[in-house]
Amino acid sequence: MAGDARLNDQQRLDWLRLIRSDNVGPRTFRDLIKHCGSASDALEALPKLARRGGSRGTRIASRAEAERELATIAARGARLVALSETDYPQRLRMIDDAPPLITVRGNPACFEKPVVAIVGSRNASAAGTKFAERIARDLGDAGFTVASGLARGIDAAAHRATIATGTIAVLAGGHNRIYPAEHESLLESLLETGAAISEMPIDWEPRARDFPRRNRLISGLSVGVVIVEAARRSGSLITARMAGEQGREVFAVPGSPLDPRAEGTNGLIKQGATVVTEAADVISALEPILGRDMPQSLEEPEPPPHRAEPDDGERARIVALLGPTPVAIDDIIRLSGHSAAAVRTVLLELELAGRLERHGGAMVSLL
Q1: What percent of the chain has pLDDT over 70?
Q2: If you write DSSP's letter for every residue of 135-193 in order, what string do you get?
Q3: Does the predicted model carry a pTM greater than 0.85?
Q4: Domains in the chain, start-ordered, CATH in brackets?
Q5: Most buried among 26, 130, 174, 324, by the most CB within 10 A?
Q6: Is residue 232 helix, strand or coil?
Q7: What is the Cα–Cα distance from 80 to 73, expressed in whole angstroms?
């Protein structure tokens, strides 16, 4: 890493305001920083960009809102860590949609060890729970930090087995809205050696759509993901899919063909996931990966040189190429005949107006 691009107080406030504004997700945040040069300049440009995309108005998080959140974070004993800072988890920084800011409670030393995620069924069998405890404990003893989602069943078993060695709970909501509420004591017990992280506002009540977002962080933190039990429609399979997209190793524990809770894991094995029957299977597969160089930090760039904005005709031609079917951004650039900068500016405007949806593989569609 070239250095610690630590934010000053004003930059941290600007970053928080920007990511909490309407229609600004992690990818849009990065695009705005690249387009405008800094979070402060992006906040000034937001209304104009959203209007050009067709919005009649967009909500920008106020300074007072951001200051209140920062005060609540401090009162909770947590800290707000930026993507550019050295205490941001290294592997999480590698993913395309890494959150610009995460709120962290607990012991930061747990992020210094390689992380393996263990996830699985909420309605876990006794055998599945026992295996999750055993493999988590063995991985912890071998020098790994175990990450999971604090859910009932397999997740909770993995956390409990690694309280002594360090475990990371990735939250779907804010630190003041632990889900399920019955696991608040479990969370508190793991903070001495482990940690809890969230990208959501500290008072955010988790909703159904927040759990897949949480799952990408579980896999993003990790070198590999172990699925212990998963039914055909299990959320753990979403974690496995995201792990594959992020270039992480995917491991699956085989189960009885007669148990619906093994249907998903057995399916993963058919698709090429590594079979796991003991911690040594995970360790031997991950050893060649560990020690590879981590990516450099993301710093706020210098303000970009002035460039002409797309005119109305260019904007109309680019928008005309979009529809409800996802299309590659490179294809839009090629077919429009306009520069990559012009196309990306129009896509940014549409996204800020709430009219664009991003998909994996640099694909976009019009809402």
Answers
A1: 94
A2: HHHHHHHTTPEEEE---TTHHHHHHHHTTTT-EEEEPSS-TTS-SSGGGHHHHHHHTTT
A3: yes
A4: 104-286 (3.40.50.450), 312-366 (1.10.10.10)
A5: 174
A6: coil
A7: 7
